[in-house]
Design brief:
567 residues, mainly beta, 18-stranded antiparallel β-barrel, two-stranded antiparallel sheet, globular
Length: 567
Amino acid sequence: MINRLIRKIFFVLLFNFSFLIFNSNLSAQHENVPVDHNVYTFLKEMKVKGILQHIHDDNPGMSRKEVYDYLKIIFDRKNELSGTESKILKKYIDEFSYENADSTNTFQLINGNNNYSNRFSDLFSNKIKHFYSYRDENINFYFEILGRALYGQNFKPFINNSELYDIGFRGRGTILDKVGYSMTIQKGGVSGSQDLAIIFDPRLKYNFKFYEKLENIGNYDFTEGYLRFFSEPAEDMNIAFQIGREKLKLGYGYGSRLVLSGDHPMLDFLKVDFNYGVFSFTSLHGSTVGEFNIDRDENYTKMFAYNKFKLSLKNLFDIGLGESIIYSGRGIDLAYLNPFAFYKFIEMSLQDRDNGVVFFDFQSRFLKDLELQATFFMDENIISHLQEMDLFSNKTAYQVGLFWYEPISLNDLSLVFEYTKIRPYVYSHVNYKNSYTAHGELLGHRIGPNADEIYSSAAYNINDWIRGKFEYQFIRSGENMFDALGNVVFNSGGDAFLEHRIDIDAKHVAFLDGERINQNIFTFDIRFEPIREVYFDILYKYIIQKNITKDLTDYSSYGFIRMNLEI
């Protein structure tokens, strides 16, 4: 009887799950749009302009369906757009609305079951391009060839160059209107200066094949992939489960982000996103690695757990409370898989071994064409000694910024200003294996601890195919001081990998104490797309670095031209 009851319950659950899967119009694409896609810039500008209410850019990854839904909202208010914005909108609607794809706007190199153009001349047209695709009532599948070529030149303090070239593919699509999937593989090589290649593509710093140097040519590889299940169980409610790896960014930040910048190795993760009306919640549990050691037995896995709750008030603001934990030295800790618990108190109950973070953030929407946002970040210390700002354990940071779109009615122009301050010892931990890092790189803001930054930028859409951008950064930092043998003689809290050493380092350290470094960084970048899905980036960077302590000034500059294609 018990067995019959169990079987009955099983078939009821199976029926309900099948109904959930099959009860759909089979028209959506639930694979994600990579977080570096240009469409996010357009959606951001439309949000600041007041066309869109919110785009959750504290958790910027969106599915193709979600992007298309936002584009439809913009289309309904197309009379408020400039001429260039209207053309950009048309370009993205063609890309993300596959129901309207046909031979007039889409080219496919290898014929499938779709009514797309296969004329070879359209390979050089402004039509959407697919190497191969397949669609029926159960599944859609898109296969894309990815290619990149980069030539970089260093100008100061010496002249040298480096070339990078890679090729790969991406397979993506959606099954039964519920499960999005994607798999990407890229393989590349480097000629010329290997050291310069890291400047032109910082991902090489943590690419094992590149620094392993076993082959006779510098080479590297990147891979990502995931499954994502999406459901809308009620009106205005949706939930998504994802497992896999892809580039993530979390938290706010125009120049860089305090919480998860994206400028680090990809995490392998489980992620849940829940949205209902004004409430949203994200929970993530991911894994990465520590610094590389030639002794493989010394290498280790570290875990990153994250929760954030956000309240979005229409025409007012978004306000959020988030937390994260980094731990290592054991497998997955079930305590941190619980999304409905306060990590800091749980960490205390687990004998205070791990690195906990709490943050608050805010983003406005009550001013048309002007967005304000702020983040307050607390690493470890929650309440005590906040009044002693120079105490080593007072590891806090904050960031405030504004985004002004179409200032004084100048169409298609955006201005950004942001200030970030990170106190000493932020991102470090008494156990260096639990520092806020992955594979030797910061998970958080690029300037690191004991530093601040003034960041500003101006970007202009010259037309729907060309965008120019200028950035200026003024960065101050207090670095650790060393003797002639390389030993630390003064720990300023400026290194995320070196914790405060009891009975060695001072209990109080002033902000920017240590070896003082000032940097002025100027960046010019222009992107153009002469042929649809063939992109060119031309970048030039000029850096003035002054060591105030030693009264030394260095000048450096470099530039590159990069071509990317996705067919």
